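Collaborator request log, item 7. Partner lab (contact: R.S.) asked for a structural prediction of ferredoxin--NADP(+) reductase to inform their binding assays.
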Amino acid sequence: MLIANDPQLARHGGAWNSAKEKVLNDVTIEKPVLEPTGALSVETVLSVRHWNEHLFSFRITRPASFRFRSGEFVMIGLQGDNGKPLLRAYSVASPAWDEELEFLSIKVPDGPLTSKLQLIQPGDQVYLGRKPTGTLVTDALLPGKRLFMLSTGTGLAPFLSLSRDPDVYEFYEQVVIVHSVRRVSDLAFRDELKGKWAEDPLVSEQAPAQFHYVPTVTREPFEGNTSRIDALVESGALFEGIPGAARFDPETDRIMMCGSMEMIKQFAAYFEEQGFTEGSNAAPGQFVIERAFVG
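Returned to partner:
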């Protein structure tokens, strides 16, 4: 054992420190310094939260000039192996009023971006696109009484943003997030959603009366719903505890969908059969999907 005031250590301190410094330098991984471009700013990672082995969320700094509507997406990325920005579209999970930006991501071991992005730590740099866009916004929907946000997996992200936006509670009497996942640990932000954003500074008064969280876990035991979203609609379980009809009504209900392509295509066809019209920023309708993600 080496003691701080050991004479022997003092005599050889210089050599010991040099050796220590060499070891630290040998194991330090140099991370590239990112440079902003006309289309991309460079932001700093503030925090990272790993939900399980294939799901994580992270918060980054927000430029003073960055404006977006709750529910929109933006390009996020790192430097690729070729030295150029490697980018992917990510929905912003934080509301438009937040001073920071939050994102929810899967971890893909061999994914060109996510294999690197899942390793980020506070203090690291990431690219942020300067122009957010998207159709999962209230502007793309006609006025209604109930807003249903149907999601699978990381498709929850834009709805985290919308459910914390006070304007949404002015537009709709009931605000509902339905989140379908395979495992319980995939229910990211479960406590916050179950608590109806009780700690949120802007919606903590409206959300307890207007917000509803409907999680469902399809491949593990769960104390709540364990069926897919379509089965919950058919049985009426999706509407339990929510004021209004135990079915979707094009006169009063507005729908947003984000997640698996299978779910979106299935429900888009279903809603059209029920008399709903798809909306866009140019022509608001009764349901919307994010075309940029599903093609």
